[in-house]
Design a protein that fits this description.
alpha/beta, 10 helices
Length: 247
């Protein structure tokens, strides 16, 4: 296990020191991204949390897929939203893996790791929340998104659901996240200056930087006091954390 020692509550996982390790689309540096295989590998490596992307199929089922289209990560082509879930399940998402259903991901990670669920479209918000509630996993999941409307939709339906605002450009994101009662922000790492991290912490927001696969950058982020590092190579970040913990 990682430093989480079996913890799955998001608020506790984000308090791991010197930082929590989040596996970006699973252990995607080693396995096909956003597949059950990648998630299993990340959990075996000891990642505290795993992150996946969710969209809706044509028939409204939450499925795990980053891109709007199928072309890059599967042997299919065209928009995800143009295919029913049965049609999507016939595609190869890499090494014979199927495109996972959100329900499968929830079953896989339950009790083993925290889950960051990136809402790639606003329409996926409520169906995803409903599924998380049905699995009794509200404390184990943080809904994250670039789309503020998606996070607001979650908040309106379930005020105690954990939420985090993602951003990749300068802006009023920290103040907006606080106003929306998020517990975290997820900046592209180049925006995570010492000043910005300090301001986020004064607002009682956790800071999760993405996506870092090299030790030099990770060390810098750790020195600045980030709360979590999202990575394609969770084993690398776990080894750095162990080294820093000894020091």
């Amino acid at each position: 296990m990682g430093a989480s020692g079996g913890l799955t509550d998001i608020s506790e996982l984000l308090s791991i020191r010197p930082f929590a390790v989040i596996a970006h689309r699973g252990a995607s540096g080693y396995e096909p991204e956003n597949t059950l295989r990648a998630l299993k590998r990340a959990i075996e490596m000891g990642a505290d949390m795993v992150e996946v992307d969710v969209r809706l199929s044509k028939d409204g089922v939450p499925v795990i897929m980053h891109d709007e289209t199928l072309d890059r990560t599967t042997d299919g082509s065209g928009r995800v939203s143009d295919y029913t879930v049965d049609q999507l399940r016939r595609l190869d998402a890499g090494l014979g893996e199927k495109i996972p259903l959100l329900s499968e991901v929830l079953d896989l990670v339950k009790g083993k790791a925290g889950l960051l669920l990136e809402l790639k479209e606003v329409e996926a918000s409520r169906p995803s929340l409903k599924m998380v509630e049905e699995k009794d996993m509200v404390n184990q999941v943080m809904f994250i998104s670039f789309h503020r409307e998606a996070l607001e939709s979650i908040a309106q339906a379930r005020v105690d659901a954990f939420r985090g605002l993602i951003y990749a450009r300068p802006g009023d994101h920290l103040v907006a996240a606080k106003r929306m009662r998020c517990i975290a922000v997820a900046p592209y790492y180049r925006l995570a200056t010492a000043k910005a991290i300090g301001f986020a912490h004064r607002l009682k927001l956790k800071v999760n930087v993405w996506t870092i696969d090299d030790l030099k950058t990770a060390r810098l982020m750790a020195e600045r006091g980030v709360d979590a590092i999202t990575t394609n190579k969770p084993d690398l970040m776990i080894s750095l954390r162990e080294e820093l913990s000894k020091g």
